[in-house]
Hints:
The chain is an alpha/beta fold. The chain has helices spanning 3-11, 18-30, 34-67, 71-120, 123-128, 131-173, 175-181, 185-222, 224-229, 233-285, 291-332, 393-399, 423-428, 444-449, 457-466, 470-475, 493-507, 523-537, 572-578, 581-592, 601-610; strands spanning 354-362, 368-377, 382-386, 408-413, 416-417, 430-433, 511-515, 541-545, 557-562, 565-570.
Amino acid sequence: MNRNVEKAEGMAEQPTPSTKLIARLFRNYLRPHLGAFALAVGFMTVSAAMTGAMAKLMEPIIDQVFQARDYDRLLMVAGAVFTVFLLRGLATYSHSLLMNKIGQRIVTDVQRQLYEHILKLDLAFFHSNASGALTTRFISDVAIMRTATSECLTSAFRGSLTLLFLVAVMFYQDWHLAIGAFLVFPPTAMFVARMGRKMRRVAGSTQAQLGQFAALLGQSFQGIRHVKAYGMEAHEQANAATMTETIYRLSVKGFRISALSQPVTEALSGIAIVAVILYGGMQVISGQNTPGALFSFITAFLLAYEPMKRLAKMNAQLQSGLAAAERVFAILDMEPAIRDQGGAKPLHTTDYSVTLEDVCFAYPDGTPALDGVTLRVPHGKTLAIVGSSGAGKSTIINLIPRFYDVTSGCITVGGFDIRTLHLADLRARLALVSQETALFDDTIRANIAYGKQGATAAEIDAAAFAAFADGFIRELPQGYDTVVGEQGVKLSGGQRQRIAIARAMLRNAPILLLDEATSALDNESERAVQTALRRLQQGRTTIVIAHRLSTIVDADSIAVLQQGRLIEQGTHAELLQRNGAYARLYGQQDFVQGDLTPLPIELQHVSRQGA
Ligand code: ADP
């Protein structure tokens, strides 16, 4: 077997017992639809009873019509057969409609719940799960859950009910023969259960691989410029080919397992049928039984074959559904570490000073990022943070909105430890303007209004005006109603920045976290963005990551970080006079006329995305 298949299978952890998963599925998703489900079971019972009736009708057809040659009976039997088929058709239609509706409703419920829950999870979760893999959970895992729930329930209930009626007919016709025929059941059931366990493992691995594949696609499409620029097409292609090959092998293996139940059940039933014909035939020949009764028995046995096959196949389906449910539940069971603590207080203050007291921080993977950093930003003042790439600048910006919690030390706003405040309250006081200006696939108006729910058109216009964005927005084809973002009009770097600034203006939060753009804007754009930023900073406590020192010369204070430590702090003039690290960085930058680090801008973008 292919090595990847084994490796992928090995990744599947010890599965949760099926009963637990089924109980949870039932409790959370089926219970609300119990009424509709009961109705569906009612229709299934009718449909199953009619199948039993079909088998039973064989007896009068043979004995009373064919053998006794009774014309009156012929019409009656024909009428009965037609009624049975009609009822069975109507009942089947009704229960499949109902079950499908329940299944679709479950998909919607799970998707809504999953999304709601994922949005609450910590940033660390998003850093450790590729977006493509998460998308797979929403689309494919949830769909598998749907199929499993609606189809398995149908197979289980309708199948068992049908079997029940058919078995009743068999016992009614000849209980000796019935017991004999049922000896084939225990081995079949054992075999099916074994296959089910295997199927669950394979299905789980297939889904996990699909997730990884989706992640790979997402990453390579997003970074397509880099893929092309570095000539990595063949490399990505090889990665994708390995994954698709693994998925292929796993899928084939899964199908082989589920298909295997067919020849096995078929062979076992063949043996039983032969036994029935031999023994039953002898009884008819010796006059102990009528041909009609034997025929009715054989019909019931043959009809039982279909629901039995469905029940056998159902296990495979159920197992892949359970594997999907397990993966979805795994996310639903994750508790965000960052949330309101018991006794969290609302933030009542007019003092929006921010301090870091002896803050140490390491990322969940253990990467140390900050080491004993103490910084004070008085209310309304600006602190600029400089330092080479990886020094810990973005980490500080991540800690203030509590995207992560400090490992030791504390961060306060207005003198309150931020961990003791309502998270929503804290975040409502912050506005974040970062390098990767996230524009959503919506109109410019909606993108600006993202900063404040329910903002009026006048407020939006005013914010755009203050951010020097009004001018270029009005020149766009549909002005404020132009669609931007992933699918929309392409905006220049400077224009995107100004929309982000307008968004922050509108939010009007007292604390501003700024991650200045590294990408060189053209001079005019640059000036507009800088003026807009300066206006945004007025009266707000601002922490800004500066990539170009020219933009922060008049910051109230400048902190220089190096490998997670604060090595210098002061105003531009003080630091220059000190002639230390800052003065060196400043001199360097004058020389390279660009970023602090001599990395090409494109590469910085890559390393940042990777972080
Ligand atoms: P800067 O913003 O100054 O370039 P960062 O604050 O991004 O630096 O990074 C500080 C350190 O933390 C670096 O060693 C970086 O590799 C690491 N780091 C940043 N983000 C993460 C993350 N999500 N997971 C693990 N390590 C990270």
